[in-house]
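Annotated sample (chain length 378).
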Amino acid sequence: MSQTSDMHPNLPSLLLARAAAEPDRIILRRKARGIWKGVSWHEMAENVRRLGAALAAEVAAGETVAILAENRPETAYADLAAQCAAAASAPIPSDTEAERLRDVLIETQACLVFVENEEQLDKLLTVRAYCRSLRRIVIIDMKGLRSFADPQCISLDDFVAGGDSGFDLAASVGRLSVDGPAAIVVTQQAMPSRLLTHGGVMQMLAEARRRLAMTGRDERLAVLGPADPVERIWGLYAALDSGCVSNYLESSDTAVENLQELQPTVLGVDAEAWAHLHARATTAAKGATTVQRVLYDWALRATAGGGNAVARWLVLGPVRRELGLGRLRLAYTGGAGVPAAARAWAQCLGVTIQSIDEIPANPVPLGSGLEAAAKAHA
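Output written by the structure step:
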């Protein structure tokens, strides 16, 4: 079944509709202990519901929920659950320095922060005294923190267990305003965060559908962090809209291995990743036999400009598969441009890298957007 965001006023309503129409269909996977484990639409909606119930007990409409973590299914659930509870979700880059983290939490007036682990918690604790709106810290991974006790902090499991038993997810989603806050885009630079309303998110999904044309037959590898618009909006949100399966890394250290194993059809990464793949292929070619090196150099020259399908199939096809790009049909990036040498190399392999605009030209000012949402839900 194919349903797109044209039929829904916001992303949470799309989630509920897909969970009802295709409950058993896999929409997420994560590799854990060597095994890819799938999450169905129904399971995803249930995870979002339970987390939304917990948020509804502590967060008011129009407030901000921040997420400080690397990419994992829990960050997707937290993002969507915050939106379901009429709050604004604000993922923050996991490598954000403490001083910048303090500024972002003050600017967004975050009242609750999901942190991934002990490392992120320690960073947050050094600046929380400056963040007057912060009331709750929810820890996703309690490894190394079993004996830790702080009245403001709670494990994700305990937080979910204490959720509002009377929370009605469908009713909450039905009350969302198209002009209400949905997604706050946070950058690492000292520049203002930007707000997308529910209507703004759906407009971006319409553009993503036009530009990227993902389908329910596609699979993508989620490489970038949840705060990156290329991953969050043009990746996760667009995948939910199209039914493309999102696959999450086992860890940031296994990105290359997971890419090789999965052979995704969709890949949205930054310029650095393409430069890394180009360098990896170049290094491998230098270490190959003389015949292999001559064939590789010949194939690159022969396919420059798009010609010589035989060279691309015979020589460069195996290179693509070795890199994890064997099935790739859609590649895109945002932010800094891909180096010319890496872009030309990818073109020789038969991969055209699209450059996308990460966010709309005229996002809603953060302060006024949050104030308007609070009034609308009062």
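Annotation: The radius of gyration is 22 Å.
Annotation: The domain at 11-203 is CATH 3.40.50.12780 (Rossmann fold).
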